[in-house]
Amino acid sequence: MRLPRIKTPDRVTTYHIRARISGPRRWYPLQKQVVRSFIIRCVNRFLKLYFCRLVELDIMGTHIHLIVRFEPYRKLSRRELHRRARA
Asked: Cβ contacts of residue 30 below 8 Å, gap of 6+?
């Protein structure tokens, strides 16, 4: 079991994020170019929406690793949130 992450909303914070896919042995769905492109598009969308910067992205056969650096928390207007969501 992993330890809870330490949240520091008042300063820049870096997280290592990992996601794994379960399936039969020797099944590597993330090696397909169409899937990799989809993951990259999703990551780019979230980077625009949230105040973060991608440091590293590794897409392996059955899992991905991201190192993401988040900016300190700040309030946004509703207008800014809508602008970011449409970007």
From this structure: 21, 36, 39, 59, 60, 61, 62, 63, 64
